[in-house]
Amino acid sequence: MRALFLLLAFLGGAQSHPTSRPNVVLLMADDLGIGDPGCYGNTTLRTPNIDRLASGGAKLTQHLAASPLCTPSRASFMTGRYSVRSGMASRNRMGVYVFSASSGGLPPSEVTFAKLLKSQGYSTALIGKWHLGMNCHNKTDFCHHPLRHGFDEFFGIPTTNLRDCKPGEGTVFASASRWLVFVPLQVIGLAVLTLGALRCLGLLRVPPAVFLGLLLLVALLLLPFLCFLHFFRPLNCFLMRNYDVTQQPLSFDNLTQRLTAEATSFIRRHADTPFLLFLSFIHVHTAHFSSKDFARKSRHGPYGDGVEEMDWSVGGKANNWEGGIRVPGLLRWPGVIEAGLEIDEPTSNMDIFPTVAKLAGSPLPNDRIIDGRDLMPLLQGKSRRSEHEFLFHYCNAYLNAVRWHPPNSSSVWKAFYFTPKFHPEGANGCFSTHVCLCLDGHVTRHRPPLLFDLSTDPRETRPLTPETEPRFQDILRVMQEAADRHTQTLSADVPDQLSLGHTLWKPWLQVCCASSSRLSCQCGQRGQEPGARN
Asked: Has 446 been annotated as catalytic?
């Protein structure tokens, strides 16, 4: 569930004059790394449409996701604020929403860029992945739903695309099942064999009821887990249009094409009025999928097929190392943003919030801290420096690292206070769920902090020491002072939207499509899901 984002912001409208209110199209790809598109140096994946957009606008080379996990990063992207400010950063093991029937989500009190633009007369739509909650108290209140956060239209999935959503792709719960189910089963099995052998040898009299009890214990462990795996897909992997479930479980057949058709339909219907379209791709998060036109066509298996299909649509987990948070960032506005511009200053996904708000003529909320910064001075050459002298990287709700780009310096310092422990059996070096845990016992704390100069060591392979960097102590002191100032701006009474109580499955919040029976929870299967409106 690591979330690496490609952000493509098309800023354009009927006029390209800087004072006009542009239409805004935001494209986000899930789990796409900075080394994947051709415009960032990849020579083996074909991304011609993304590359064409890059050549016609600005390419950000130090663009950062606000978090390496889906839910907190999207919360920051939507609000322009560190997710810890809204309670969308976990203090326990569960860092994202896994169940559609969880009660946590982006609080109604938060202001999204969709709300701001809607208040300025924009038509707004979200197509694709949401993953910021749905209901609070019952299955029809939709307190966290996209339509309650400023979007006029929603067509997509409310949670995320897990491998469990696609038959044959396995389960993200393999690690948990090992300790909760299979280890106890192995212990019980060993006990049955031992007792059976002792009984056969006449060394111990074991009543048949003991064996029956052990078999019942096996059933009590195994059957609930099998039921969980069987029902997880229909209950959590479904497609919605606004408040209605239209396909349950989700079918991946031509899914990218369906989302693209919906996006182009929205653009056609609102071509004469200002609009905001947020196309949040389900690609390329596991489970990997692609249509028959792209399957087995790339040089990188299912992942490459998905990237190339996502690129086709454009033409029409977790840690804070640079590989986990540095992501592609492309912005295009013909006549306003210089074609071929490359910006090496630190920028963040949080910057989209103030940027589009200003372009739409909306004032920023004055009752809260906005951490993002307007990108237009950089994009128009009015400023050569990012306003982000410091950026703060969180591992869930815990301050993990600080980045410092000093004035009048080419250095970009990054200090880690702790790093997740490496587990070789993990699919990404952490765990089979693709999530690095941030709690004590699962991290290594560094005293003094690990320090890197990203300008000369972007791969973070050579930690600096007082011997290799004479200013070592002074640099760490300045960064610690900045971290202290930052943490003083955080509120201590923000409700934890990712607490255990908010992330557990709640039957009374479970939604099913209207045409299904309560037991099947199925509808709109292959070829039946309504297509895009004309």
From this structure: no
pTM for this prediction: 0.84
Number of H helices, E strands in the chain: 13, 14
DSSP string, 290-334: --TTTTT-SSSHHHHHHHHHHHHHHT--B-SSHHHHB--EEEE-T
User: d(Cα 377, Cα 364) in Å, to the nearest integer?
Assistant: 17
Length of the chain equals 534
- Determine which helix (DSSP H) or strand (DSSP E) holds 95, and give its type and residue range: none
DSSP 421: P
**Tokens 């880690």 found at:** 416
| Active-site hit among 131, 149, 270, 434 | 131
Gap between the Cα atoms of 526 and 246, Å rounded: 11
How high is the pLDDT of residue 314?
40
The vertex-450 CA angle with 448 and 451, nearest 5°, equals: 110
What type of residue sits at position 91?
A: R
The pLDDT of residue 528 is 47
Collapsing DSSP to helix, strand or coil, 451 comes out as: strand
Four-residue CA torsion sign, 68, 71, 74, 78: negative
For 99-140, what is each residue's pLDDT tens digit? 999 999 999 999 999 999 999 999 999 999 999 999 999 999
User: Are 357 and 364 within 8 A, CB to CB?
Assistant: yes
Q: Which range, of 157-171, 404-418, 450-464, averages the lowest pLDDT?
A: 157-171
Q: Which amino acid is at 423?
A: H
pLDDT at 48: 80
Domains of the chain from N-terminus onward: 5-162+237-388 (3.40.720.10), 174-234 (1.10.287.550)
Active-site pick, 39, 70, 430, 523: 70
Helices (H), 400-503: 472-488, 500-503
pLDDT category of residue 487 using cuts at 50, 70 and 90? very high
CA 92/CA 442 separation, integer angstroms? 12
Residue 486 region by backbone torsions, left for phi larger than 0, else alpha for psi between -120 and 50, else beta: alpha
Whether 430 is a known active-site residue: answer: no
Contacts of 293 (CB under 8 A, 6+ apart): 309
